[in-house]
Specification:
- The chain has 8 helices and 6 strands; from the N terminus they run ααααααβββαβββα.
- The protein is an alpha+beta fold.
- The protein has 2 domains: 79 residues, no CATH class; 207 residues, 2-Layer Sandwich (Beta-Lactamase).
- Strands 3-2-1-6-5-4 form a 6-stranded antiparallel beta sheet.
- A hairpin with a 2-residue loop joins β5 and β6.
- The longest helix is centred in the C-terminal third of the chain and has 36 residues.
């Protein structure tokens, strides 16, 4: 499906280039004809027989007329087509996430305003539910920007593994399962990721290298499929380490199933920068709050 999409886009660009080139050549020819009296008819007469010249001229005129018509259609299409720059509103998933963050802080303010209780404030962080909100909106965003690939919720799997007890140190050796999306569709059997014992896992490579790991093609050596049924049809994987003050405290896993969505690794890197980076910051925001509230609780004891 992805190959067809890319071929179609490539053919569209080639067609537009040829149309524009023909019109440019035509305009240039008439300018030269008027200034230096260059004539294509005279040139054709010297190269071809007199019987063929009218046929060739008719073909050239037909190509120019077609290019003019095509240019008009392209102009109309470009003018009236939907603007790809999205309007900032609540239909955009990451803006809904940001609004949720503000609403949550507003709830904390209300609680502090009534009765100030540090423990009660920490217990109402709603970390798990907030992560699920980000999972859901992140999934919606991916489906929207990849709609040309015909993806559905069944074709995406997002999971998060984090440090069990939120205490910042540089020797985190194990990450435990936190949450995944969509829990109504997918199951996950992995409960823990151990840095020493699970070195073959792509997610561990991301943690060790301290940067996103991209598996454009799933193959032996770059990704272990595991026992989960969903992984039988996995096409791409992205593992993203999440950091607090430069220390990796969580791992975000993104799996694409059933459809080839990207041309190559370079395409996936560009996709991360353009479409995923904002959500990485949203995930890290919730992690920052988790560690902040835990630190407050420790100081209060």
């Amino acid at each position: 499906m992805s190959k067809i999409f890319y071929k179609r886009e490539k053919l569209k660009k080639i067609h537009e280039f040829i149309v524009n080139l023909i019109l440019l050549i035509t305009v240039t020819y008439f300018m030269l004809k008027k200034t230096v009296h260059v004539s294509i008819s005279d040139f054709l007469i010297h190269v071809f027989s007199s019987e063929m010249v009218p046929w060739i001229l008719d073909i050239l005129i037909g190509i120019v007329v077609y290019s003019l018509i095509a240019r008009v259609f392209l102009y109309v299409y470009e003018f009236w087509s939907k603007d790809e720059t999205k309007i900032i509103n609540l239909q955009t998933p990451h803006y809904r996430c940001i609004l949720n963050n503000n609403v949550e802080i507003g709830e904390h303010i209300k609680k502090v305003d009534k009765t100030f209780d540090i423990k009660n404030l920490i217990d109402n962080h709603a970390y798990e539910s907030n992560m699920q909100i980000i999972h859901r909106n992140f999934s919606e965003h991916l489906l929207e920007v990849l709609k040309e690939r015909k993806l559905s919720t069944n074709d995406l799997f997002i999971s998060l593994f984090h440090q069990d007890v939120p205490v910042l140190n540089t020797e985190i050796k194990e990450f435990v399962y936190s949450s995944h999306y969509d829990p109504t569709i997918h199951d996950t059997l992995t409960e823990k990721l151990n840095i020493e014992e699970d070195k073959s896992l792509a997610g561990i490579h991301a943690i060790e290298k301290k940067k996103p790991i991209i598996c454009h093609k799933i193959k032996n050596g770059n990704y272990v499929k595991g026992k989960e049924e969903r992984r039988e049809n996995i096409k791409h994987y992205i593992g993203i380490p999440l950091k607090i003050n430069g220390i990796i405290v969580a791992l975000l896993n993104i799996e694409f199933h059933n459809y080839v969505c990207f041309q190559d690794e370079k395409d996936m890197k560009s996709f991360i920068q353009q479409e995923i980076q904002a959500f990485i910051y949203l995930y890290e925001y919730q992690l920052y709050k988790r560690y902040f509230f835990h630190l407050i609780k420790e100081k209060d004891q």
